[in-house]
Amino acid sequence: MKILALESSAVACSAALCEDETLVAQAFQNNGLTHSRTLMPMCGDLLKNCGAVPADVDVVAVAAGPGSFTGLRIGVAAAKGLAWSLGKPCAGVSTLESMAWTAAHMDMEICPVMDARRGQVYNARFLGVDGAPVRLTEDRAISLDDLGAELKNAGKPQILVGDGAALCYNTLKERGLDLRLAPEHLRFQSAWGVARCALEQARAGALTDADGLVPSYHRLSQAERERLEKEKNKGE
Fold first, then answer.
1. Whole-prediction pTM value?
2. Is-cis flag, bond preceding 215, omega within 30?
3. Residue 126: beta bridge partners?
4. How far apart are CA 105 and CA 217, in angstroms?
5. Which listed residue, of 58, 92, 129, 227, carries a Cα 20 to 30 Å from 207's Cα?
6. Are the CB atoms for 222 and 70 separated by under 8 Å?
7. Which superkingdom is the protein from (predicted)?
8. Sequential DSSP letters for 145-196
9. Mean pLDDT of the chain
10. Closest to 22 (Cα-Cα) out of 36, 8, 5, 35
11. Distance separating alpha carbons of residues 86 and 175, to the nearest angstrom
12. Residue 179 CB: number of other CB atoms within 10 A?
């Protein structure tokens, strides 16, 4: 099964072509350019350099959230467009679970974290078992204080992955927690992890179509929060 995977949930952007568990090619960019400029050219060049065409792809996968609202919309829109034009199924996967795959070979607890601002991180916790992540919590937006308390109660070493890993490490390390930063080349979101999650979805018969593919934000946008706050103030 050939899977074309897209990852644009944070500052870095990547695309990957995988055949079952095998990574055929991956492109990664973390230079501050907008994903609307980089993602689709990256996919086209990647396929061309592999001697493949879009019609060769069996599944289009994308990190559907949580993450940057703009980044998620770009990635999901690109995946929907590809899937619609090709008539292929989609996989919208958890950004956090896809990150956990990069450290699952360690067979210990994995703590993906993304900076959600406002004193919160997007987080889920996993346990690496035989090279695959086993979910311990659902995806959520959680305060660093609450996450620190939860990890202290767990009492086990944690591998931190994600673009919020350094923030989490610097904030919570002083509380006596056993936190370990994944190496930088394994720390950030990557399309390979997205493809690996998508493969598991395909095997479970949980794929969707382009119409059913939607972002999963896990939190209201700033504009929505401001609108609700204004409505609340008007009612007082």
1. 0.91
2. no
3. 110, 135
4. 28
5. 129
6. no
7. Bacteria
8. HHHHHHHHHHTS-EEEESTTHHHHHHHHGGGT--EEEPPHHHHS--HHHHHH
9. 92
10. 5
11. 51
12. 20
Place of tokens 């598991």: 200
* Residue 158 dihedral angles phi and psi, to the nearest 5°: -125, 130
Token digits for 208? 């969707």
Query: Reduced to 3 states, what is the DSSP secondary structure of residue 20?
Result: coil
Q: Which helix or strand (DSSP H or E) is residue 127 part of?
A: strand 126-129
* Cα 152 from chain centroid (whole Å): 25
pLDDT band with cut points at 50, 70 and 90 for residue 34: confident
Two tokens, residue 136: 């311990």
The position carrying tokens 């599944």 is 59
Average pLDDT over residues 5-15: 95
Helix 165-172 with 144-154: angle, nearest 10 deg: 70
